């Protein structure tokens, strides 16, 4: 019995040590690197639950972005049916789907906070009707990482760079893209990512 306990502790230590350093001490979604390339990598993410809100934008609006963030922040601060505080996770994932709405001139933006691992099976429901729990399916994504302070224009540049580096539009879905930010507004050593969903 003691031997099994020791093995279990070793496995937990091993799992903890494999968490990327850019997650800091926060829960992050589990993934496996399938292949590394020169300036990007292909990852496979496990299915996971997230708390989500969404909006339509004719052009990128930092005020709307901030409003969406605080809707999710209020959820983890206690605006949920359990009235409980929920630990912050990383990254904050945004999904952009351009070319929708009237005359295809709008973009759907979805913002996501991951539900902590120990709450994944049964997260409390949001009390804000514009916030909801969503399931992100298992997903393969091409990922480009970069440092520094990021903004929407930087993300667009990095997505273009990632597409150019992959150099084969048949390998990914080009109708939407993801951004992932891992750091608070006052962090200095920052880690950012842009993702493209891989085709199979």
TrEMBL record:
Residues 1-17 form the signal peptide. The keyword Signal applies. It comes from the Eukaryota. Gene3D superfamilies: Regulatory factor, effector binding domain. Transmembrane segments: none annotated. The keyword Magnesium does not apply. Keywords: Signal. InterPro entries: Reg_factor_effector_dom_sf, SOUL_heme-bd. Belongs to the HEBP family. This is Heme-binding protein 2.
